[in-house]
Amino acid sequence: MSRRYDPHAIEPKWQDAWERDSLYSVTEDATKPTYYLLEMFPYPSGDIHMGHVRNYTIGDVVARHLTMRGHQVLHPIGWDAFGLPAENAAIKSNTHPAEWTYANIETQKASFKRMGFSYDWDRTVVTCDEGYYRWGQWIFLKFWERGLVERKSSPVNWCPSCKTVLANEQVLGDGVCWRCKSAVEKRELEQWYFKITEYADELLNDLETLPGWPERVKAMQANWIGRSEGAEVDFTLCDADGEPTDTTITVFTTRPDTLFGCTFFLLAPEHPLVGELVYGTEYAAPVLKVVEAAAKETAVERAMGEREKRGAFTGRYVVNPVNGEKVPVWVADYVLMEYGTGAVMAVPCGDQRDFEFARTYGLPIPPVVLPEDDPALETLREVRDRQFDNVTWECAYDGPGIMVQSGAFTGMPTGKGGAGVQAVTRWLEDRGTGRFSINFRLRDWLISRQRYWGNPIPAVHCPACGLVPVPETELPVRLPRSVDITKGETLADHPEFYTTTCPSCSGPARRETDTMDTFTCSSWYYLRYCDARNDEAIWEFEKAAYWMPVDQYIGGIEHAILHLLYSRFFTKVFRDMGLVTFGEPFTNLLTQGMVKKDGEVMSKSKGNVVAPEDMIAEFGADALRAYVLFMAPPDKDLEWSYDGLEGMFRWLGRVWRLVAEVGKETAGGCGIAASGDPATKNLRRETHRVIGKVSDDIGRFQLNTSIAAMMELTNAAYDYRKAVRDGARDLALTREVAETLTLLLAPYVPHMAEELWSEVLGHQGSVHRQAWPAYDASAAAAEEVEMAVQVNGKVRGRITVAADLAEEAIMAAAFTAVASHLEGKEVVKAVVVAGKLVSVVVK
RNA sequence: GCCCGGGUGGCGGAACAGGCAGACGCGCCGGUCUCAAAAACCGGUGGCCGCAAGGCCGUGCGGGUUCGAUUCCCGCCCCGGGCACCA
Questions:
Q1: A241-261: per-residue pLDDT in tens?
Q2: Measured in angstroms, what separates residue A444's CA from nucleotide B63's C1'?
Q3: Can you list the residues of chain A whose pLDDT is less than 70?
Q4: Which of A97, A616, A785, A815 has the CA that lies 20 to 30 A from A172?
């Protein structure tokens, strides 16, 4: 054993030993409580960065801790290995995406082992392995059987840089691609969809069943799903002469109570009726100008939010079902085809956008809802028919109020979800011209991608039979290796791939050449870990039932919607298929903060990257692990500091020397000791206080304070050595403290703890197979406590009293301690807070 | 505009349930050892006043509740993130 702490000597040694002994492989064991701890699996980008180090270290500490606590802990890892970066890298370096990907996986795997992570390597999944992606295709077929797959044409997001379409979730708020950040364009294309909207209600409602998720993430998902209650209202379209036709146009509104204030009607520029309405009329030119301007607009421009509204009159009218009034139909660029029906009833007095539009184009703004304190209410309260056509307001009013100029509903209180809303909806339902309705912002998930390095969609286009699923028995549809991505080829360039016969009629047919969104691969990997090597089924029901749901999931906030929403959707479908019995995959979620340098995220372009490898080379993996945990609570961002890492290494050196000295001291046995002196008592108490603190803190993910507590125990042990000279020490206690500290440290600095346990303290068997130190509350309890004495809120003295002293006696001692401050004053009140302080109020 | 976070020493951060603000670490200052340095160790370290004992101020700002507020309530300011022409 070397005298100094030398991580470079001990870390690789133990990493090899753990691998040799398969120390972290687990199987189902009905006698133990289970715990499934999962960190989001990485994309194999090559080198690991500090974000990985932090994410996986947090998980590793918790996994190791729970194992020592007697749990059967599933702690797997794998690679989210399909995706565009592999294609881009392949083009750059003239290799094949597969080669690049598998080489990177090896590099990353080596880095993870070098960090000492306790993964069950036998369960590794790699999503681009045939044995994995075939089950992804199987899922696609099962979804299809259940009516959850659809191929349809609609306006979609197109990333010109990635040369593929994107799902709505994959376009960031400012209208750019989530991966490459280039501006996304709109294109009308036929694509494959998963009908996630069928689960919209459940995805929203079940958020309430997830108390272990951060509020922030739940709020973001709820926001994204965007449920609105309201009504559908049918407006009858008039012909060119203004006579009603058989055609109705339906709108969705959250405020049917304001229908009487509808003075114009709007269609989205992309609305299919627009061309037909203006064809061959004098209105065609100005309307088409608006349509074309909107079409040219990029998603970035659209995402800018409220801008100048543009529109044009179509020359046509619709009939308002509540009052039979004919209102003009306009095309307006602020109406979205993607939301609701692409048509809107405009109520300028109650909607700010309609208000601005009306002011721009000189359309009337009659008031239909007035706030209780509006002076105009007096004259309008009883007025059923429209008398006032134009408010003088500066902006629309959408708050609660009284309905006016609203026929039979006049005088009724109303507002969002108010009585008026319900009354008008019922009225419409009775006449068949409207109905209660719920609308979601969430759109179906566009899953097809026009790229090579992904999971092929198992479908065939047959000229006779249409779209035909590939039979289950023919899975997998293999992704051919021969595609030359460096020439920009995709599956659509490979006749040997797409030429096929129809599974239904055996006639010539064309295989689908799109691949699936990589988010489909990551939506079920956590289930596959439960039975990763199964070739007969996606997983064995009992094995998934044994481990799932994931007890603790750890990953980045960037997946607050994307991966986490998709996975929840998949799990609900699996439940409906009978593959699992639960509807939520992740019971608890921790979103870890970013690692920053100089206040900014580490990135190559900013040139502020700190390479984990360099830090390991200098201080070892253990110091790096402990450091990233110590510098901030896991969910907060942390600011990297080299000096801080050095300080961590220093502390580990101190622990090393302490345990080494104790090891030497107690090598020949602990003999008799049992001194009852205060220093010894104090150290014993401190030891148990720290056991309690570290145990609690891990449970709360306060890993930074748990390390601080271990530092305090180290300091206390050194204080004891200073206070009690060689030969006089309680060796049994000294040994107990050293062993306790080693056990507490084991999850954090697994190599050092292993070396101390076996080589320095001379135990048999891995420290990681030992039981977590037992916390003894009575041992941690102090016999005497120091209490502060406050006079009028200021600390004026201190008393040290027996912990169980009666309140009157404490009070008496306190009065004595602050006698000078009480002189000549009258005590008005005195409060004793056990173990903390005495508060005296004087006059 | 709406919804979440957050604002505490020179820095990262503590304070679990309203109870002594600043744990722990970094940095800095002083010291021991050394020819010197590194390492290690010892002591100090919120601000102001004071030789000292001690006193006053102090958790973004302004109020409030309370014996007592970083913590609870009301009203603001600033920073970060998410969503946003969603009818």
A1: 999 999 999 999 999 999 999
A2: 50
A3: 1-3, 298-306, 671-675
A4: A97
Q: Which residues contact A767 (CB under 8 A, 6 or more apart)?
A: A742, A743, A746, A750, A753, A754, A756, A757, A758
Report the C-alpha gap between A5 and A21 in whole angstroms.
25
Q: Give the burial class of A607: count Cβ atoms within 10 A of its Cβ; 0-12 exposed, 13-18 middle, 19 or more buried.
A: exposed
Burial class, A771, CB count within 10 angstroms (exposed 0-12 / middle 13-18 / buried 19+) = exposed
How high is the pLDDT of residue A1?
44
Q: Is A188 exposed, middle or buried (0-12, 13-18, 19+ CB in 10 A)?
A: exposed
Do the beta carbons of residue A477 and residue A470 sit within 8 Å?
yes
The three-point CA angle A110-A40-A15 to 5° equals 25
Q: Which residues pair with A229 in a beta bridge?
A: A438
Q: Which amino acid is at A740?
A: T
Q: Is A101 helix (H, G, I), strand (E, B) or coil?
A: helix
ipTM for the complex?
0.94
Beta strands in A160-255 (DSSP E): 164-166, 185-194, 227-238, 244-253
Q: A425: Cβ–Cβ under 8 A, 6 or more apart, which residues? A: A231, A256, A434, A435, A436
Looking across all nucleic acid strands, the nucleotide with the smallest C1' to CA distance from residue A839 is B67
A715-CA/B87-C1' distance, Å: 64
CB A670 within 8 A of CB A739: no
CB-to-strand B under 7 Å, chain A 352-391: 353
Helix H or strand E encompassing A18: helix A7-20
| CA A154 to C1' B84, whole Å | 23
Q: Is the CB of A796 under 7 A from strand B?
A: yes
- A216 beta carbon to strand B: under 7 Å: yes
Chain A 435-464 residues whose Cβ is under 7 Å from strand B:
439, 441
State pLDDT tens for residues A565-597: 999 999 999 999 999 999 999 999 999 988 888
User: What is A720-733 written as a DSSP string?
Assistant: HHHHS-TTTS-HHH
C-alpha to C-alpha distance for A793 and A758, rounded to whole angstroms? 54
Task: Work out the widest C-alpha separation in chain A, in whole angstroms.
Answer: 111
Which secondary structure element, helix H or strand E, spans residue A430, and what is its range?
Answer: helix A419-431
Rounded to whole angstroms, the Cα distance separating A358 from A391 reads 11
Q: Are A175 and A303 in contact (CB under 8 A)?
A: yes
Question: CA A34, CA A305: separation in Å to the nearest integer?
Answer: 49
In this predicted structure, what is the pLDDT of residue A672?
A: 61
